[in-house]
């Protein structure tokens, strides 16, 4: 049975499925996708056409798929697709949902009610927002994204170090300054927007690169113009899209076909590699350090001797490389790997470098 389910998912990979997302998601096996990006209908509740001061009509979101009879109808729809997304999400996967003040608070409540664990709300600050033409409210210059895990216990992917480097060695914050989709990126048919809510590629780039890994499966249950698929392809991820409208599917497929995958070697991030756990005793077992060998602090003020049981001793202090260095420094704890050195050919070598050599030999 599991093989059958797996084969079903493989049939969907890197394709856009036509139909209702709730019904199609029911065909997916449990715990099968790594990352979900959802850009659902916002239920904007527009009651009339919107005009600029010069009386030209604003190309607003007035599509049929964004209209719901009531909040109750919208909540029912939201709960159903979110429940299916939670079912198909892997236990350590994450989901992103984007919205505006019209719907994001309702979405957030439903997500918490059905078991999602919210990690962040990200504010996408539009550097070039549409003005408020009537001058009756503040200019609405942002959208909100909810980033959540399947449960509080999920061990999710977050490429923290990569995002810090991405942001010039500053922590990536939850306010993202990204322009709305315009210029050559905005897809137009006969001069009109092909999709009223096309999202900028920069937004999906940041989401996918920060919270997934190469080879992962990225699901978009509201594929629209195909931004998710195009960026997933560029970044070496698999995608599955769901979309009702044949018109959008054709636009998305054409766009994804033109997207070029980045070279594989550019998608490998040594920065995010987690070092295997190597106890100090392993270096002794493998002959990288020998019993009775001396360890030195970098300034050579402190000297300790290595014992066969992987403890070290200096004066009347004995213990691990960490506890001994901490006592010498008058601290509660200290990283012995960066404190201690061995002397080889009159040169001090960090025992952390020896640990790296050990890892290369035994874990690669």
Q: What amount of the residues lies in strands? A: 15-25%
Please tell me the overall pLDDT: 91
CATH homologous superfamily title of the largest domain: Vaccinia Virus protein VP39
The CATH architecture of the largest domain can be named as 3-Layer(aba) Sandwich
What form results from the Cα inertia axes?
elongated
Quaternary? single chain
Helix content: 25-40%
- How far apart the termini lie comes to 35 Å
Assign the CATH topology of the largest domain: Rossmann fold
The CATH class of the largest domain turns out to be Alpha Beta
Beta-strand segment tally: 16
The SSE string, one letter per element, is HEHEHEHEEHEEEHEHEHHEEEEHHEEH
Structural class: alpha/beta
Rg over CA atoms, rounded to whole Å, is 27 Å
Largest sheet: 8 strands, mixed
Number of domains: 2
Strand order of the largest sheet: 1-10-9-2-3-5-4-6
Low-confidence stretches: none
Describe the 3D structure.
The chain folds into two domains: 2-272, Vaccinia Virus protein VP39 (Rossmann fold), CATH 3.40.50; 280-363. It contains twelve helices and 16 strands. The protein is 32% helix and 22% strand. The protein has 364 residues and is α/β, with parallel strands linked by helices. Helix 3 (71-88) packs across helix 4 (104-113) and helix 6 packs across helix 7 (227-234). The longest helix has 18 residues, at 71-88.
How do the helices and strands line up, and which of them pair or pack?
Layout: H1 2-12, E1 15-18, H2 21-25, E2 33-38, H3 71-88, E3 89-99, H4 104-113, E4 117-126, E5 142-149, H5 160-166, E6 175-178, E7 188-189, E8 192-193, H6 201-211, E9 217-220, H7 227-234, E10 238-243, H8 246-258, H9 280-285, E11 294-297, E12 303-306, E13 312-314, E14 317-319, H10 321-329, H11 336-339, E15 340-344, E16 347-350, H12 351-363
Parallel strand pairs: 1-10, 2-3, 2-9, 4-6, 9-10
Antiparallel strand pairs: 3-5, 4-5, 7-8, 11-12, 11-15, 12-13, 13-14, 15-16
Helix pairs in contact: 3-4, 6-7, 7-8
